[in-house]
Amino acid sequence: MIDQQKTKQPQITLVGAGPGDAELITLKAVKALNTADVVLYDALVNEELLAYAPTWAVKVYVGKRSGDHTHSQETINKLMVDYAINYGHVVRLKGGDPFVFGRGFEELEYAASFNIPAQVIPGISSSIGVPELQHIPVTHRGLSESFWVVTGTTAEGKISPDLYDAAKSKATVVVLMGIHKLAEIADIFKNEGKGKLPVAVIQSGSTSNEKVAIDVVDNIVVTVKESNITSPALIILGEVVSLHSQFQAIREFYDFVDTK
Amino acid sequence: MIDQQKTKQPQITLVGAGPGDAELITLKAVKALNTADVVLYDALVNEELLAYAPTWAVKVYVGKRSGDHTHSQETINKLMVDYAINYGHVVRLKGGDPFVFGRGFEELEYAASFNIPAQVIPGISSSIGVPELQHIPVTHRGLSESFWVVTGTTAEGKISPDLYDAAKSKATVVVLMGIHKLAEIADIFKNEGKGKLPVAVIQSGSTSNEKVAIDVVDNIVVTVKESNITSPALIILGEVVSLHSQFQAIREFYDFVDTK
User: Do A128 and B100 touch (CB under 8 A)?
Assistant: First the structure.
């Protein structure tokens, strides 16, 4: 006879780990980790967070390799359900917020197709939090009444067509996963006559590896190269970037060039 | 002679309290509260969070009254600086995220003008987290490659002009502070031929008072009225809303009406 007390119910919790700083996770997320039997975690998750799971919990790295996205997502879905059925509570720990380009909903749907109870705990999205830690607000009276978050890498590996519309808009534009297409993205804004729009590129925001490059659209590719900024990084374009402490010097430089 | 050990340095920390659920606050925010001498908190902040501040800390409610915004923001700025100079560490506890229509940057600037060190700790923004808790993702492969967050109440008390552009876009559109203008917002989308676009209105997301109304743009005003939904509430418009468990029945109803 099976000992009912010891048979754990399958359960899945998608958890947002935030942008990288281990303290930028919620209390609710920590509570979920405390009761995890298994943690499946992504590449951009701070591994210090695994210490919130019981020592005996299974911890599995499921970071995707680029170029092999489709297979990996299927593998993750299957692992998640297999572990839930065999071990009990699976915490699926994802960088940033699970529903911002995180394919989190697909994981919820997959769990539901096996009738496994699943919930989601929001995390601090890099799209807002990373510029914020650099004291760049996505909205600010007189400068921006909205912000538009776009992916630089769609399912087909391309810049989202939405970015062309975003470049025409008055919104602050945040591009996630777009650093490898920075030159192309800058061109889209230049084509809208926005070569002088302030832009910031922030690598590994909120962590000890954080780097920031600030300039106008016309010159951002050069500045980012000089700063040795690489992935993971986000791009924020808009007048709000002019509020950054480094921007005043840049403005004075361009004013000087303009009046020569 | 002044006892230097007891003279506290003025310091200000803007803290995002998240959407309402007391567990949706970060560990970093709790740490800031633990060392607060004063907490200035807004109307939409869960008061349970005040328990993280020392019992002897001063707790001041600074929720704004509608119709008196400008004066109130000035008063808050002054209170914040006065308390920092006289008491030490002021935590400015704000609903959601301090930089999403929160006027947080203005508070940072004001602190800087008095040379008071100030930092900001991001919070879970309702714009992403509240739909997420209803299992509505702001992005989803095949349905949305971007999301656009707009205010329904600008400094002049109007709908942001950005919303007219947002209604033309393929982005998921999230409107904060727009519930009192729902009919006007619905009209903007109808004028773009989007009367059948799925929309959700969520009141007091993440709290025990949470209410949700789901329909298409053409009918959302009636449905919200029937659901007795009031402020605070957010509006999310886009195909991603069709992923909500209640939407299938709505789709079937409209398909039925269409084929009659």
Answer: yes
